[in-house]
Each structure stands twice: as structure tokens, then as C-alpha cells.
Amino acid sequence: MAESRAPGPDAAAPAPAGTAEASPRPISAETVSANPAPPVPASIAPVATPLLDARLGAAAARFGTPSYVYCTDLAGERLADLRAHLGRWFAISFAVKSNPNPALLDWMRDRLDFLDISSGGELALSRQAGWDPARISFTGPAKQEPELRAAIETGLGELVLESLREAELANAIAARTGRVQPVLVRIAPARVPKGFGDQMAGRPSPFGIDVEDAAEILPRIARLPHLRIIGLHIYSGTQCLRPDAICENWRIFMQVFSDICTAQNLRPEKLIFGAGLGIPYHPGDATLDLGAIAAAIGPELDTFRADPRFVGTRLVLELGRYLIGPAGWFVTRVVSVKQSRGTRIAICDGGMNANLAASGNFGMVLRRNYLIHRIGGDEDGARPIEKQDISGPLCTSIDKLGGGVVLPRLEAGDLIAIHACGAYGPSASPLYFIGHPLPREVLMTGGQLRDITRIGEDRPHRGTDPTRTDGAR
Ligand SMILES: Cc1ncc(COP(=O)(O)O)c(C=O)c1O
């Protein structure tokens, strides 16, 4: 998980009692009400409301803690917002790595255009969620024979080739299967603008074919008889909150696509723009302005698409966290409170083991607090507002969910909610470390809550008796 660095206007907002240190703009009271579908909001940032707290509290009471709660209404709003601003140019592909829960993938099936997977395991989860393999692409720098075979045999839409080795292996598998496999070639550009939390190109990188090698490698792939190059793919940076940097990156993509397609005489069916759209994780982070992106890059996208070489080309935005990150909360319960040398520390039942990203250990350079609030607020002033640390249940000092967080005074039994946890949650966490019960996953649609826990069905969850081996609660 990348550190998001861009400061934003929200930083100045005062902290209402019972919410996080700095308050994001309040928009989504409707979202956590039952219905009807709200209008597309100008900006999307989750905020604590009594209704949200009631629902998160109900999820914790019914399913236990720690839990992830995913709100499909909010994800739906975000999708509508994406389409409203960028749908004129782009179809949307969801990166399964960001949240592979099959119930969510199922929800997405009739709403999104494509899925991108990065392993045989994600292929199986996507198929379990009912996705047609023809709408699935497959990225990943170290694909191996069994997963390639499974993907090709099942009728995968596009294989995203990241090397010549992979192309030759895929060609041999496709030959045995009697298929000609459509492929996209992943290109690593020479430059990524500043402003991305994580960079996958612009320096030595395991991902894709370096743009300077494309002229040599693409013709060799094109000669493989059981592969058909139908386009190109770039994913060079994630977690960017700056519209200017996103636009600059897409300009680089357009140049790379034009140069390669001209040199190789390609009329691509598809070009994948690795979106890089970031989300606010920390107090003070900006909310990405999709309108500013559309206004700045729209005319250039129009010109690009008017090129005869690209008139029949489908442009696709590949993204994960932007869609689902802010639509999820991590709910954990305070087990114990310690006053230690002047610092109040709330110790919770789920920490880094269940939510690596929120602990700051998922690729973050400097640990920064996520947006956090106490469910139930300050109980009408009964809880003084003070700085507290929040840690998890592990026997390591890196298991910390918050340092100096300004919250109503926490007591044992309290619930806290961490925002922006819908992406890179359980599947990106060291769930087996120290053997605590696994987090639950809960789907919230209107007022309905549904247990959609996937991971570790063989392991006890909170609410189960961990000493029982017969699976009974
Ligand atoms: C190839 C590829 N596609 C999509 C994504 C999704 O990124 P994000 O969740 O930041 O949108 C990633 C993230 O690392 C990626 O590597």
C-alpha cells in the first residue's frame, strides 16, 4: 500500500467529536440509508454518521470483530461517478487483487465491463462469482504453466504478456489446446510522473516489457502462431491524488501506444490505461477530482481516438482501490486500555494481522494514521476528546493502527471503525501470524447485512470458540 502524500483542502476541516482527526467532506448520509439510489455526488468521501454507526455496530454485534464491512451502495455511487466523468472514453476493468471477495465480484458482474486477475487463484474466484472468462484479462510478472493452462483452456479474454518467456510458454499451451489466444502486451514506460504512491516503471522493474525493448520483442511475439496481439497494456503507478500527474501519465501512455502501434503497424482492439486513481487514506489527503482530470485530458483523448489507427479501439481503465477502497470499513473492538507513561493505548482485537495496510506496513514509507472514528461518537460529550494510540493484539510494536489519534476517550468494549479499508484488506494481510481469529467480511446493501467471509473457512473466526475443532460455534 502506497503512502498518499498529496495534502488537500479537507485538511483544514475541524474534527467533529466522534469522528476522525480531520473530517472528510460529508456526502454520504444517503448512501448508508436504505434507498433510493442517490444522485451522483460531486465528491465522494465516506464520513461517520449515526446511521453508518448503527449499521457498523449491527455488523459487529451479528458477526463479531474484527470485521470488514463493504457498502455496495457507496461502491455503486463511485462507479456511477467514474462513468459520469470518464465513461465517454473508457470502459472499466476491476483489478481483483484489490478485493477478491466472490460476493463483491458477483455484485460487480452486471455493473462493470471487465475483470483483471493476477493468478490462477483469482481466476478461480472470478469464475466462482460467475464471470464469463471472455471478460477477464490476466496480468502478473511470473505466470506459471498450470495457471496459464487453466486460463487459456477456460477461454480467457486476454492474456497480458509481461515477457517473451511467458509469450513462448503461452504459445505452446495454446497450441496444445488448439486455440489462438488473444494477448495484450504490457509495456513499462521510461517515465512515471511524480505524485504516485507506488511506481512500477520508469526504473528497473519486473513488470512488463521495457519500452526501449519493445521494438525487438514485439515482432518476436507477433510471430508466435498461437497468440494474437490485440493491444497493449500499461500499469505504471498507483495511488495518485493529483489530477495533473494522472493526466501527465496518461499522456505518456498515449505517446507510447501511438509509437508502438505505428512502428508495429498495429490497429489495436484494446488499450489498457492503468488508472492509478488514488483515494484519501489519511487525515488531510485530498479527494481526487475526476472532473478536473476529465476536463484536462478529455480533448487529448478525443484527438487520440480520432486517429484512424484507434477508431475501432476500446480504451479501458484498470483500477481497484478507487472503486472499492472508500466503500469499506474495518471494525475492531477495544479489548483493553493501558495508560502507559502518559499515553493512553487502546488495544484491539484486530490489528496488523487482519489489516496490514492500516498498520502502515504495506509499502508505506512513513506510518500515518488512517481516518478513524469511534462508533457511537463522544456520547453527547460524555467522553472527553483526547489523543490516544491504538494497537492490535500482536506481540510486536509494529502492530499499531494509530498514533496520537484524536478521538473520544476509548474504553474496553468500544468499537472503532477505520475508513478506506475496502481494498487490500484481508487478502493483503498476514492472517496466520500469531493465530488470532480471522476477520469477517460483511456485505452491506441498504440496511441489509450479509456475512460474505471467504478467507480461512477452515480457521475459527471471532464469535467461534477457537478451541473447538468440530466447526461448531
Ligand atoms: C497491473 C495492476 N493493475 C491494477 C492495479 C490496481 O491498482 P489500484 O488498486 O491502485 O487501482 C494494480 C496495483 O498494483 C496493478 O499492479
TrEMBL record:
Endpoints of the signal sequence: none
Transcription listed as a keyword: no
The keyword Signal is assigned to this record: no
Superkingdom classification of source: Bacteria
Keywords: Pyridoxal phosphate
Orn/DAP/Arg decarboxylase 2 N-terminal domain: residues covered: 81-324
Pfam families attached to this UniProt entry: Orn_Arg_deC_N
Compositionally skewed regions (Low complexity) per UniProt: 1-24
Stretches the record annotates as Disordered: 1-40, 454-473
InterPro entries documented for this protein: Ala_racemase/Decarboxylase_C, De-COase2_N, Orn/DAP/Arg_de-COase, PLP-binding_barrel
Residue runs in coiled coils: none
Name of the protein this chain belongs to: Type III PLP-dependent enzyme
Organism of derivation: Paracoccus mangrovi
